[in-house]
Design goal:
The complex is a heterodimer of chains A (about 110) and B (about 110). Chain A is mainly beta and about 110 residues long. Chain A contains no helices and 11 strands. The radius of gyration of chain A is 13 Å and the shape is globular. Classes of the chains: A mainly beta (about 110), B mainly beta (about 110).
């Protein structure tokens, strides 16, 4: 049982390049989330998907797009990467209601 | 929107002592309060959570208390051990569709042997 799987684990991009971060969960959860964590800081919500077919903005959505491909998969796209988007990106999933979120291992993204 | 403040930002304790981390939240509609532990380079992992219909919850050496009137909740770790050294995050949610969590800024706990 893998839980939440993120790919890739590491990536280096040049400014202006585009990239899609992939996330898949095998816990049959309805809700999925994308967070970013900057060094020494907490997690900030970028986008979330309450259920298959829906997506909504979180606290810091600018510069990102998301796709809920199916119940298992939720991808995050950077269309034109900027150095300010250098961060660790975590995907998470949960059941509906007040249920714990389970996190993937993260993608460490550096933009030069 | 919701705002969660967490204190202290760093905490150093002797092994065997207790550690207490406090969080305040702004939205009185919040009703779910999880705590996550994050070791260096790892993912956040849930250690305990509490819902607004409960004032206190305990799991071995970890306990969480909630004061809805004052809008604050706290994490208590007793008999600390070196493996408790990590960054701890509190969070709050209203439990609506999507269960969006708002995180505090984190507390770096160092347990000295």
């Amino acid at each position: 049982n893998a839980g939440v799987t993120q790919t890739p684990k590491f990536q280096v991009l040049k400014t202006g390049q585009s990239m899609t971060l992939q996330c898949a969960q095998d816990m049959n959860h309805n809700s999925m989330y994308w967070y970013r964590q900057d060094p020494g800081m907490g997690l900030r919500l970028i986008y979330y998907s309450a259920s298959e077919g829906t997506t909504d903005k979180g606290e810091v959505p600018n510069g990102y797009n998301v796709s809920r491909l199916n119940k298992r998969e939720f991808s995050l796209r950077l269309e034109s990467a900027a150095p300010s988007q250098t961060s660790v990106y975590f995907c998470a999933s949960s059941d509906v209601g007040n249920q714990p979120q389970h996190f993937g291992d993260g993608t460490r993204l550096s933009i030069l | 929107g919701e705002n969660v403040e967490q204190h202290p930002s760093t905490l150093s304790v002797q092994e065997g002592d207790s550690a207490v981390i406090k969080c305040t939240y702004s939205d009185s509609a919040s009703n779910y309060f999880p705590w996550y532990k994050q070791e260096l380079g790892k993912r956040p992992q849930l250690i305990i959570d509490i819902r607004s219909n409960v004032g206190e919850k305990k799991d071995q050496r970890i306990a969480v208390t909630l004061n809805k009137t004052a809008k604050h909740f706290s994490l208590h770790i007793t008999e600390t051990q070196p493996e408790d050294s990590a960054v701890y995050f509190c969070a709050a949610s209203k439990g609506a569709a999507g269960n969006k969590l708002t995180f505090g800024g984190g507390t770096r706990v160092l347990v000295k042997p």
